[in-house]
Fold this sequence. Notes:
Layout: H1 27-46, E1 50-52, E2 57-59, H2 77-92, H3 99-133, H4 138-147, H5 153-175, H6 177-196, H7 206-226, H8 236-256, H9 279-294, H10 296-304, H11 308-316, H12 318-339, H13 350-374, H14 389-392
Helix pairs in contact: 1-2, 1-10, 1-11, 1-12, 2-5, 2-7, 2-9, 3-4, 3-5, 3-12, 5-6, 5-7, 6-7, 7-9, 8-9, 12-13
Amino acid sequence: MTLTTPVPTAPATPARTDDPGRAPRDGFVDAVRGLGVVAVVLLHWLMADATWDGTTLQIGNALAHGAGWTVTWLQTLPLLFLAAGAAAAYRGSRTLGLPGRWWRALGGSVLGAARPVVVLLGTWALAVAVLLAAGVPDDAVWRLARMVPQPLWFLGVWVVLVALAPLLVRAWRRWRWRAAAVVVALPLVVDALRFGAGLGDLAWANVLLAWAVPFGAGVAYATDRTDGRRAVPRAKTFLVGAALVALAAAVLLIALGPYPASLVGMPGAEISNLAPPTAPVVLHAVAMVCLALTVRRPLARWAGGRGRPVVQVVARRSMTVYLWHLTAMFAVVGSVVLGLGQRLPDAWTAAWWAGRPFWFAAYLLVLLGLVAVFGRFETSRAGSRGVTLTRAATGR
């Protein structure tokens, strides 16, 4: 699925590849992925909020205070799935007639992604034992340990979506907008049944169906480019208009209820818009896809020019950054709250804002150390260029 008007023509910026067995490079996809990873990290780092009374560790969310929920509308998970779908379709365009080759490539990517994940979980298992032996309160240790694996849900959803990528490519080529309509409608119907018919358990199907919307958009975008179709309409007003309509619909649904204003789960909230994803999240994903496609050319130029060093650095260690950025935050906050016995400043106060550069610098310093230690596990033993989030989350 994609929000485009395909016109048979040569791609404006042909995707290129250095190896026919690998997916082609697309500056737009690389930029979207890189910016998406950085934005996810920054959003999580903004959430740090914890108190310790000597017995119980209370973990909150700084974005739950005041107007902090507005920041959640900048969450970029749809961009990561858009990039994942595009990269999977680029690979799929070369293996649709070779199912064995496709499944081997997918299996290799899954195994490659498993290596840094196993290292993360193994390291934290050892860390838990050491912290408990050192006398760190059990409650604090186990609360942190339960939060570490939370980002891994992305990889689980990726496995299923990438496995379905060849089918999505065929569906887009055959049914075009009818396929797009089905992909968007399915999670909306599930959400309607959840709240309208009381089928609460059915809502968990949207963990897959909701993220299939931006993933499917990426599939359609890349498929049109490899097929020689125009991937983005000339009139950007179409994309901007579609984004505004989707955002307006999301705001209307939240105003009418029962959806909360925050697009991520908040402590104590009765409903989370993200677990499982709701209709506002689906509409937000549509809007982000439209806006990203609106700036496709500038992003592609930036990724191939001034932004190339940034994109390359993030791509080279994206999996390590994604897996360890919460650990970096926990290490800093834990040292201050548990080790030094200090209170964190109240969220959104002048002191909180004044301290953000210093806290972020501390998180980044620790993260760079973790990347230096654990980044080696992102590189395969066979000496390939590595199992980055680019490849592990897209099969590239």
